[in-house]
Amino acid sequence: MSEAFHTKELAIAFVDSIYYARQNKETNQEIGELISRYELTRLTENKNKIFKELKNNLEILKTLETLISSQNLSKKTF
After folding, report:
1. Structural domain of 36
2. Does the structure show a pLDDT above 50 at 78?
3. Do 6 and 25 contact (CB within 8 A), yes or no?
4. Are 27 and 8 in contact (CB under 8 A)?
5. Degrees (nearest 5) of the Cα angle 35, 20, 7?
6. How many domains does the structure of the chain reveal?
7. Residues 25-45 pLDDT 10s
8. CA angle 25, 26, 29 (to 5 degrees)
9. Torsions phi, psi for 2 (to 5 deg)
């Protein structure tokens, strides 16, 4: 999972529109599958809190990525 997040970090840093057009959806699915599997485990109260924060931050990231993608698309149309 850390590799997937690192790839996302690089895509944001370099404003990589090709990544968003071709790979981001697959990466999000991969992360989603890992999160779904991890949800099946029993967590301590502290780990559960951290896990909820991770899921919340991931949703925020997806929203930001959607904005970045739409900005890249609008730049291409002009």
Report:
1. 2-77
2. no
3. no
4. yes
5. 55
6. 1
7. 999 999 999 999 999 999 999
8. 90
9. -65, -35
Q: Pull the structure tokens for residue 48.
A: 């559960």
The answer to whether residues 24 and 65 touch, using CB atoms and an 8 Å cutoff, is yes
Distance linking the first and last C-alpha atoms of the chain: 36
From CA 65, how far away is CA 72, in angstroms rounded? 10
Contact 35, 58 (CB under 8 A): yes
Distance between CA atoms of residues 67 and 61, nearest Å? 10
Check residue 77 and give its pLDDT: 47
Q: To the nearest 10°, report the CA torsion of 27, 28, 33, 35.
A: 120
Q: How far apart are CA 29 and CA 46, in angstroms?
A: 26
